[in-house]
Amino acid sequence: METALTPEGLSMDILAIANMPVLWVLALGVFAAIIVQSLVYMKAARKAGPAADISEEELKVSFRAGAIAAIGPSLAVVLVSIALLTLFGTPAVLVRIGLVGSAATESASASLAAGTMGATLGGPDYTQAVFVVAFMAMSMSGAGWMLATLILTPILRRGDTKLRRVNPALMAIVPAAALIGAFASLGLAELGKTPVHILSVIVSAVTMAICIALAGRTRATWLREWGLGISIIVGLIAAYIAHTSGMAPAA
Amino acid sequence: MSSADTATTPDASLAEFDRTTSRWGQLTMGVALFLSLAAPLYLVLFTDLGVTASMIWTAYLAVAAAFFVLWFVEPITYYPVLGPAAMYQAFMIGNIANKLLPSALVAQAAIGAKAGTKRGEFAALMAICGAAMVHVLSMLFFVGVLGTWLVSIIPTDIVDVARLYIFPAIIGGVLVQLVVTMKQPRVTVIAVVVAALVLFVLVPAVPALAKPATGVVVLITAVLAWFLRSRKAPANPTTLVN
Questions:
Q1: Looking at the complex, does the CB of residue A241 fall below 8 Å from at least one CB of chain B?
Q2: B227 and A CB contact within 8 Å
Q3: Residue B112, by phi and psi: left (phi above 0), alpha (psi -120 to 50) or beta?
Q4: ipTM
Q5: Do the chains contact at B43 and A100, CB–CB below 8 Å?
Q6: Which residue of A8, A38, A96 to mutate against B (max B Cβ within 10 Å)?
Q7: How is chain A split into domains, by residue range?
Q8: What average pLDDT is seen over chain B?
Q9: Residues of B (136-195) whose Cβ lies below 8 Å from A
Q10: CB-CB neighbours of B236 under 10 Å
Q11: DSSP-based helix, strand, coil % in chain B, nearest 5
């Protein structure tokens, strides 16, 4: 159906375009924006500190406490990001996971986008063109969160009571339904693919269930943070064993 | 009047803080937004792949149908906890529930500041700055440098298999994590039943619905979950994805 695609568009060498120098520059620019923001905020906080009844020492302690608390979760996100490198290349992963997205939302967006091209993420039909369309679609979706923040924050700040009066039951149920609905749909769709896909979904789900159960029983909270990374690795190992032992259909 | 005069009164000083953080928060977030869209747009415009606008809009609609509710719900949900300044940090960095909020709470506890006070707000802001630095450095070093190198030395047959099955390996874990942390059994049952019916009954019957299938599931699930909600138990606030 994609008659418009050029021979280059049908190339399977994703990393050839995913690692273009321009993308690296843009990715570093995004991180520069985050760093500049933090520096400006810290300077502003130090200046207004006395008015907020907080000393310079306490500001420093807060910074350090926040940084240390973020180490575990950051490394857990690193593990998941590295797993995604094979799909999207480094600059795209840095921008998508480095900005508001999470591994869950971004890979879900990419999978949905690839589906509209009649392709599977990472499958034999995952061409350069599919990658570019998926990358564009997930970036536009990520932009949705940032635009909503840019528009809503000044409104909420003015203390607009209408937004705050939104029925709390509505705010609890509709997002939960949207999230579980989206991921249940994507998960079940994977079950309609090859036996190795089914196995990967199930092994990953069971591993996560074990991590959560162990975290609850032993109070090892790090297991909650690392649960997704561990589930992905164990799921991939199971997929590799099954794939190489001939469970996958001949490509 | 000079800036030295305004800085002497606490109110003026706090007003200046608000002005600076919201101006720079919006500016830096706008820049990041622009750069993040420029990257894929560059590939669309300057590579000769034959990608058309209609392909992009079709893909975007499928993604937007699944996530547009969250674009608005997440900022509204987190605003009371974060306050205006930290909103621009949080929705740039992401990982709010699993990284930024715990960092903010630890910092407030460390200096004995209560949430909702100015001290608490400043402690949270500094903590998020600290978390942001750790986030940026770990992404650049462990993913940007080490990760790229790691992928280059892993045998290609392993990379190919990883690429093929990474999505199912993510989705299984994510789904269980969501269901467990949300503790909404009724919504979960509705979602799974709706997804199964749409994917395995409706789509085979009406193939045109294949592309927007996930959006259809989200819409039906949200409507059913609302009308079939338990009216006895008070609703718990939701844990979100970002």
A1: no
A2: no
A3: left
A4: 0.83
A5: no
A6: A38
A7: 166-251
A8: 86
A9: 136, 138-140, 142-144, 146-148, 150-151, 157-159, 161-180, 182, 184, 187-188, 190-192, 194-195
A10: 12
A11: 85, 0, 15
Smallest Cβ distance to A188: which of B20, B102, B196? B196
For CA atoms B215, B216, B217, B223, give the dihedral sign: positive
- pLDDT of A13 reads 82
Q: Kindly tell me if the per-residue pLDDT of B236 is higher than 60.
A: no
What is the rounded distance in angstroms from the CA atom of residue B168 to the CA atom of residue B160? 14
Q: In a 10 Å sphere around its CB, with 0-12 CB exposed, 13-18 middle and 19+ buried, how is residue A95 labelled?
A: buried
Largest CA distance in chain A: 69
Question: Which residue in chain B is spatially nearest to A54 when comparing CA positions?
Answer: B119
Q: Can you give the C-alpha Rg of chain B in angstroms? A: 23
By CA distance, what is B127's nearest residue in A? Answer: A66
pLDDT tens profile A195-225: 999 999 999 999 999 998 998 888 877 887 7
User: What residues have CB less than 8 Å from A106, skipping those under 6 apart?
Assistant: A84, A96, A97, A138, A142
Long-range contacts of A154-160 (CB under 8 A, 24+ apart): A154/B22, A154/B84, A156/B75, A156/B76, A156/B79, A156/B84, A157/B22, A157/B84
The answer to whether residue B202 scores a pLDDT higher than 60 is: yes
Inter-chain residue contact B142 with A75, CB threshold 8 Å: yes
- Residue owning tokens 């903010």: B104
Say if CB A239 and CB B169 are below 8 A apart: yes
Q: Find chain A residues with C-beta within 8 A of B156's C-beta.
A: none
